[in-house]
Amino acid sequence: MAGKHISLTAKDGGTFRGYLATPASGKGPGIVLCQEIFGINAYIREVADQYAAEGYTVLAPDLFWRMLPDVELGYSQAEWERAFDFMKRFDVDKGIEDIGVAAAALRTRSESTGKVGALGFCLGGKLAYLTAARVNVDASVCYYGVGLEQLLGEAKNIKCPMVMHFAEKDRFSSMEAYNKVKDHFKSRPEIEIYLYHGVDHAFARTGGEHYDKASAMTAHARSMALFKKALG
């Protein structure tokens, strides 16, 4: 399934691209897909296409456009270093603003039913969490978001149901961080938090060094269950 690029207009001026993948029916509930630190690369487009194949209209906005439009990196050492440089310079608040633009666009596009969720991996997991707190979305799924334990002050603003996936051996997070997040949301059953034992960061990235098929399939099933319930 081949998606296409569309143009989005930022709130503070300027335009940026988004990768749009639509289901075979031509219409479905919307999902804003929040990128990793590697830009809208082949893996992110693969995820968009996967969810489109399952009936969703997926839009992955280019969130690094203010630094360099259309970043698309692989996973070599040199590309990792470039990706971390982009992450260090990335303005998270502006990124959330751009995600809000993408979500609003999805709600009104003819390919969407009007409901919109958020989905993100790595940096995108953090952004999916903040999107649930700051943007009008109907559900959010966060894969191994980094630094969520430092963002618990935003939790009171999260009104939609969420699923969060954590890796036991995450080299960019810790069990202490996981426990802080889990404890903070213990009285909120609409926020589902899952720990995947024996796996590292990016366990869901197909073809990646730490890909774990069993954990990835379980996490995907849980994510789909939320989206089906909240979005249709």
Question: How would you portray this structure in words?
Answer:
With 232 residues, the protein is α/β, with parallel strands linked by helices. It has a single domain (4-231), classed as Rossmann fold, CATH 3.40.50.1820. It is built from 6 helices and 8 strands. The chain has an 8-stranded mixed beta sheet, sandwiched between helices. Helix 3 crosses helix 4. The longest helix is centred in the C-terminal third of the chain and has 19 residues, at 213-231. The protein is globular, with a radius of gyration of 16 Å. The protein starts with a strand and ends with a helix.
Number of strands: 8
Strand ordering within the main sheet: 1-2-4-3-5-6-7-8
Q: Which architecture would the CATH scheme give at its second level?
A: 3-Layer(aba) Sandwich
Give the CATH topology: Rossmann fold
Model regions low in confidence, pLDDT < 50 over at least 5 residues? none
User: What series of H and E elements makes up the topology?
Assistant: EEEHEHHEHEEHEH
Tally of structural domains: 1
For the record, give the distance between the C-alpha atoms at the N and C termini, rounded to a whole number. Answer: 21 Å
Main sheet properties = 8 strands, mixed
Structural class: alpha/beta
What attributes does this structure have?
232 residues; alpha/beta; Rossmann fold; 8-stranded mixed sheet
